[in-house]
Description:
methyltransferase; CheR_N_sf; transferase
Amino acid sequence: xxxxxxxxxxxxxxxxxxxxxxxxxxxxxxxxxxxxxxxxxxxxxxxxxxxxxxxxxxxxxxxxxxxxxxxxxxxxxxxxxxxxxxxxxxxxxxxxxxxxxxxxxxxxxxxxxxxxxxxxxxxxxxxxxxxxxxxxxxxxxxxxxxxxxxxxxxxxxxxxxxxxxxxxxxxxxxxxxxxxxxxxxxxxxxxxxxxxxxxxxxxxxxxxxxxxxxxxxxxxxxxxxxxxxxxxxxxxxxxxxxxxxxxxxxxxxxxxxxxxxxxxxxxxxxxxxxxxxxxxxxxxxxxxxxxxxxxxxxx
Length: 299
């Protein structure tokens, strides 16, 4: 599993530095960060998000011993501090995820998508390529892998028959995803038959029996990569039969939504499927047919 260029890890506080209170951002300071976050991540923040900036970012100011958000903004503008942007990204991006979140999509995957793909794999020796775009802590990507492995079988997906790309801009959640460790509460939505088949006790969790790990045969199907969906070009040289990009568009500026949707469609193979979040409806995508549950298919 490859993560690309990850920032050097550090804690929120240096052991030698005592945390201090950070002043709430002014409206002017908030506007600076709102514009920066829009530019870098495509996220749109209303005025009510001023509390969010302080709540999620003040520890970075404490870490660098900066008194105001203006100081932190100026710090970010320096070329020598550009790596700090990644810590800002990690702080402000939403990381909610879960197994079988919006389970209608996985029911559709099993009943409509995988049967057709299986037939094409057998008849045309098709090699499957899936993408979990905005994968957070990895549940969605592992969900796709488990469902595909269970339905298609080991023989069809071995030797490159199935590869799944899982990407996110947040390096903290990617680090968690690579480990593939989840609590029993987190995996409770997974059907029992799949829990028994694809999870094992984690030997590296300090004898914590509450933590289970994804089996290696599922982990090896997935490549985790770090990149920004707002980038002008993606480091991808393949087309996908299936792309999940759920609950990402909701947070984006309308223009950025359109740009992202066009890029996702461009990276779909002919007759490929694009799956958006259940609430992300109302989009008309050129060359795409809407099926059900915000699932689209390329004509």
